[in-house]
What we know:
The complex is a heterodimer of chains A (167) and B (423). Chain A is of the alpha+beta class.
Amino acid sequence: MTRKIMVLPNGACDGCDKCVDACGQALGYGSKDSEGYRAAIKIVNSEEGYFPVVCRNCHQAPCVTACMSGCIQPDEDGHVITDYDRCVGCWMCVMSCPFGAIETDPQKHVTVKCNSCLDKSVAPCVAVCEKSVLIQINIDEYTTRLRKNSAIRFINGDREVAQKCDT
Amino acid sequence: MRYVIVGASYAAVGAVEEIRSIDSDGEILIVSDEPYRIYARPLISYYLENRVAEKNMYFRPDEFYEKNRLKFVSGKKVVKVDPDGQKITLDDKSVIDYDRLLICTGGKPFIPPLKGIDSKNVFSFVKWDDAKKIKKLADGAKEVLIVGGGLIGLKAAEGLGGLGLKVTIIEKEASVLPLVLDETAGKILREHLKDNGVDMVTGNVASEILADESGCVTGVALDNGDSHKCGLLIIAIGVRPNIDLIEGTAIEVNRGIVVDRRMRTNVDNIYSAGDVVEAWDILSGSNSVIAIAPLAFEQGKVAGCNMAGGKSAYTGGIAMNSTDVFNMSLMTMGLTKNLDESYEIKSYKDGEVYKKLVFKDDMLKGVILVGDVDYGGALTQLIRNQADIKDIKDDLANKVLGKAGLASILPTILSKTPVPTFH
C-alpha cells in the first residue's frame, strides 16, 4: 500500500462543510455548535475557490521534526500519524505546519490533526461529500492522474495551462 | 565506519535516522551521561505534574534501538575529545575510536555563584533526574521559589503549581519570558499566572540563598534587601552550551560550537548539532544559538546525512517557541521585542487573547500569539522563508488580527512560500 492523501480539486467544492461536520462527529466533538468543537479538516473560502486545510501527509513532515514528545510519526506507508495518548499539547507541531493543518484543543491538551482514518474503508469526510469531489487517493494514482491530465491539456493545445500545471 | 554521537536527545535521534537511511552497515554508538534511554526532555514538567507517565517519557520506542542497531552507553560522561587520534575518553577512562563524531551535548544550566547556592533542596530543572528529585520533595515543601522566569522556570512553576504547591517566581524583568514577550503579552501572562496561584516578584535579582543549620534552603535574599521563604528552590536563569568536553581542542567556539551549513565544525570528521551549536540564524543573517527542540532535530538530520556521506545543508532557523501554561496557549516566532522604529507593528488584544505581527521591508519578521495559536505554522513559514508579502501585508494583518482569523488567509499565505515536499 502507498500513502493516501486528501485531494479537493480546485473549483469543485461548494463549501457545504458537510465533510467538516462528519470529521468533528467522528472525532467525538459532536456537532458544529457544540462547545470546544474541533475538526481535522477545514474548508476555507478563498478568492481562488474553496480550499481544504487538512494534513497532507508530508514526506519529511515538519510536524514530525518539531514534535516534542515523539508522538507524531510516519507509519510504514508514510501516513503522518499522531498518537494522541502521548500528545501533551505543546503546540510545536501547530507552530511548524506550513499548511496550518493542525489545530489545538486547549481543553483536552491535545492537537487535532487528520490521521487519515486508516481504520475505515471510507473516511467519513469523503463519505458525506455530496458532490463527491473530496477524495482520498493513493499518491501513485494521484500523480498518474496529474501526468495524464497534463498530457491531455497539452495535446488539446492548452499549452500554457499544461505548463503551469507541470511546474 | 563508526559513528559516535555524544549526547542523547533530539539532535541525536535526527542524526541516527538520517545516518541509517544512507548507511545500513556502519556502527552507531551513542554516549549519554544520563541513566536513561533517549527521553523527551521538555516533558519533565509534565512528568512532575503526573500528566505524563514514565513510559511516555521516552522519545522513541524500544524498537528504535533494535531497528537502527544502536549501541547505547548510558550514565557515562565524555571527558576528552582527541581529534588527532579520532577518539574520545569517558569518565571511566575507557577510550572509544570514531570515524565521525557528532557533539550534541545540549545545554547545561547556568548556576550563579551565590552564597548558599550549594544548599540542600536547590535544583536546576533540565534533566529527568531533576524532576524526580523535586517530585520526591514536593510533598514536604509547601513554598517553592523559582529564580528565573524563562521557559524552564515557567514550566517548572506550572508543574509545581499543579501539584498544589505555593509557587513564586523571582524575575529581574517585569514578567515571564522577558526575552520574547512584549509588555502587553507579559502582563496577560503575569495575570494569568496569578489567577492560577503563581506569584511573581519582579525587578530584583537574588543575592543570596538562605539556609538553616542543617544546610537546607530556607529562602532567597534579593539585592533590594527583601527576602522570601521557601522549602524548595529552583534555579532557572538560563542554559549555556555544554562544551566542557572539547576544552583543549581546536574546535572553534563562539557562543556555542561554530558550525557551517552542513553542521561541520572546523575540525575534520567532527560535527555538532542542537542546543550546543551556534548555527545559521535566518533573521540575523549570522550564526547564533537557538536552543529549541525542533531546530536541534533538524540540525541533527543534516549532520547525520553529511556524516554518512550524503549532502545536506541546514536551511537555518529562527527563534521560536510554543507552549501552554495553565491552559493558556502561547507562541512566539522571530523578532518580537526591542524593535526600533524601522519595524512596523500591528497588534490586537481582547481579554486574554493577544496577537502581534512585526513587519519590515515587506517581510514578516516576528509574531506573538497568546490565547489563540491555531494555524500559527503558516506564519512561521512566512518568516522562515522571508517571503515578500508586500501585496498581502495589509490583508494579512486585517485577517489575522480581525474577525476573519488566520485560517481565512491560509491559501494566500501558501501562495507566497515554497510548498514543502509532500508528494
